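Figure 2 data, in text form.
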Amino acid sequence: MMKATVALVIDDEVQIRRLLRVALEAAGYVVHEAGTGQQGLVEIAMRRPDVVLLDLGLPDLAGLAVLGRLREWSEVPVLILSVRDDESDKVAALDAGADDYVTKPFGTAELLARLRVAQRRARPAEENAVFARRGFVVDLVARRVTRDGQEIKLTATEYALLRLFVRHAGRVITHRQILREVWGPKSEEHRQYLRVYVTHLRQKIEHHPTAPELIKTEPGIGYRFASAEEDAKANSK
């Protein structure tokens, strides 16, 4: 039996949510709703929808802020629904990671077609929202890092670096890739930035920073963040 496609609607207007629910359910979608940006982020982490319909004008977080937070840990297709039809708003949303942009009011047939296109282009391999290994936990939704239940305070750059490591846990990331992702394309040759921040990060998250269990150095190449699966393999031997 084919799994039903799950859609999450994030919009503070009850009437819009009701309209979208009727249209989407008639097209075979399973629909969930959220009236605020924060609630929407939690719902995405819990429900793991196949597509998200996101309004820009939310009461707590701006739609672009929700999109930015979401793209830190998820590649789920996002369709923006907004009354704003300025080109600058559309460009900003697409640059922030939206897959498409539809202005209100919209036609149901066109909306469903755009959803189908967004889903066909969907990126594979959805990342987990929570990484856990030996008492070390990174909650990418809450942006919270803990070790043995104690919260670890990180700077914005340290968190960006850790987030990159966690999203690619178990895989080697080159120095150049890391510098480009965290500091930008013009920083690819500045490896001293990376060495300093890896040292700081290890001091905060490792039990023994000089003998790291989490951030592994790949000499001459880059770094690899140990995955949770590595523990399972080690324990099975």
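Caption note: The chain has two domains: 6-120, 130-236.
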